[in-house]
Design a protein that fits this description.
mainly alpha, Formate dehydrogenase/DMSO reductase fold, four-stranded antiparallel β-sheet, two-stranded antiparallel sheet, 25 helices, 53% helix
Amino acid sequence: MTRRLTAVKTALWLLAGVLGVLTAVRFLRGLGATTALTDTAPWGFWIAFDVMSGVALAAGGFVVAATVYVFGRERYRAFARPAILTAFLGYAAVAVGLLYDLGLPWHILNPVAHPQHHSVLFEVAMCVMLYLTVLFLEFSPVILEHPRLQRPLLARVHRALQKVTIPLVIAGIVLSTLHQSSLGSLFLIAPYRLHPLWYSPYLWVLFFVSAVALGLAMVMAESFFSAWLFGHKPRRELLGNLGRAASVVLLLYAALRLGDLAARGKLDLALQPTGHAALFWFELGVSALLPAVLLQSGRVRAGSGGLFGSAALIVLGMIGYRFDVCIVAFARPEDMPYFPSWTEIAVSVGIVAAAMLVFIFFVEHLRVYPPEEHGPAEPRPRPDPGTVRPLLAGPAAAPRRYSLVAVLGAALAVALLPAGALFGDQVARTPVAGPRTLDAIRVAVDGRPDDLVLAAEPARQAPDGMPARALLLDADRDGRTVLFDHDAHVERAGGETSCGSCHHQNLPFDRASSCGSCHADMFLVSDTFRHESHVGHLGGNAGCARCHDGGEGAKTREKARACDDCHSDMLVPGAVVRPRPGGLDGRAVGYMDAVHGLCVACHEREVALRPGELPASLADCGTCHGREDPARLRRLGPYAAADVRRAAPPPGAAAVPGPSE
C-alpha cells in the first residue's frame, strides 16, 4: 500500500468517525439537534447536496454505459466498471442521505407503500430505487469474478447477468433520463419562489443536459484521482475525447439557458447590477462557459492538469447550480433565513468519505480496472475471514491506525456538538416578573357589566363607566397581557376571607404571597426550598436530623419531611388548591400551568354552579386573553387604549378627546 493511499484512507476514516457520532445524535435526538432546518426551511444542505447534486454526480454511470453498449465505442470500455461503481455508490449515498433528512426515516418506503402516480416526486423516487437496483445488477459480475466466489451456482448467475447486460443498460439509460430531468420538474410548482434567473418551464431539460455534462466530468475527475491514488497511468487521449464531448454539451447547456431567458424576456435581469445577476454569471461561467472554452483547446485536452482542472470546474459549478436552485435563489421569509449547521455539512462529507472507503475496498479486492492499468502487485498478508481485516487491507499497523483516527474523529465531533445535541433539548429558563398596577375603567361591553379596559386618560371617566385599578399580568414580558380586576374578584368570591381561593400557600412570615413567589419560572418546575437558609437557621450540619430523620442512605429530598410538617402556617385555610399526598415537597409547577389550572378550573366551576347566569364561554381563552380585540376597542372609543400592551400614560401626556369634544 502506497503512503499516498494510506494517508487518504486515514483522512477518510477520521471523517467516518465524525459521521458515526453525528449519526447516533441524528437518530437519537432528531433533526432539531443536528440541523438548522425549520418549518419555513424544511429542506436544506442535505437535499441540495446529497440528493440534487448526488444524483447528478452519479450520472457518469449511464453516460459511459450508453457510450460503450449503445453507441458501440469499445475503446471506452475501460471506464465502464469504475463509472458504474461510482454511480452505484453515489446512488447508495443518496439513499443514505435521505434517511438522515427524513424526519421519520422509515417513510423512505412510502413511495412503494402509498404510490402517488400523479406526483413528480413519486416518479423520481421510483426511478432512483429502480436504477439503484439496475446499477447493482450491472456491477454484480465484477463481484462474482472474485476467486472466493467461484461456485457453480454463482457462475450460472454470472453468465445470466452477462446475457442481460444490454437490457440492463437500456433500462438504466431510460431511468436516468427520467429522474435526472424530473429533479428539475420538482421546482416547476414554485415559479414565484424561484428567482427568474433560475426558474424556467424547461428546468427538466436544463437538469438533464447539465447532468450529462457532469457525468462526463465525473468520469474524467474519477479517472485522474484513481490514477493518482492507485498509481496507474490515465488514458489521457480517451479522456481528452470525453473532454471534447463535455465541451459540446456545456455549450448546449449555456445556449439553452441564455436562450430561455431571452425568449421569456428575463435576460435583462442578468445585466442588472444585483447580487443575483453576479451569482448567475459566476455560476454559469464556472460550470459551463470557462470549462467549455478550455476543453475546446487541444493543448488543454492533451495535459492532465488542464483536463482535471476543467473537470473540477464543471463539478463545482454544477453543484453550485443545484445549490442555487434549491437554496440560494429560492425565496424564504426574510425573518427566517437558512444557513446550514456544521453538522449538516459534516454528515454529507462523512457519507462521501464512507462511499470512498467502499470504492477503495472494491478496487483493492476486485478487478474494477483492467489488469494492465495496475502497478506491480504488493505482497499482502493472508486475510483472516473471521475478522474485519479485509476491510482494512494493508500492513498490520493499518487497522490500529484507522481505528485510532476514527475514535479521534468521534471525540472531535463530541467536543464540538452543543449540549442540546448530546443531552437533549435544554429548555431555557423564563423567569417570572410580577404584575403591574394600572389605572383602568370598568364598563359594560357585550352585556357583561364588569368588563375592564385600560384607561386612555386615567383622570377622566368614561360614560357609564367608573375608574378602577387593574393588575396587568405579563409574567414573561412577551406582550401577551391579561388585565385582572383583583377587587372585583375579591368581591365576587366573598371578601377578604376568600383569599385562599387563589393564594393557596404563603411563604413563611408572609400573607397572600404572589404567584411568582413560588412559581418562579414561566414553564419549568421551580424549587422553592432553600437548603442553605435552613442549614443556617438550624445550626449547621447538626440540624440535618430535623428534616432527614434517620434512615440509611443519602439524605435526599425524597427522604426528607414535608415542608408543612414544620411550617404549618404556609397552607392557607380553605385553600382551593391542596398539596399532593405527603405534604408540600418544595416544588412548584410552572407559572403558566399554575395560573391556567387555577383560573380555568375556577371559571368552569362557577359556570357549573350558576348555569344560565354566567356565559358558558367564561372558561374560554378569550375571557382573559381577549383584551386586544380591535372590534371591542373601537366600540369603547377613545376610552380604551389602542393597544392594551401599553401601560397607562405618563404624567403630562396629551389628553385623548372624548365624544363631546
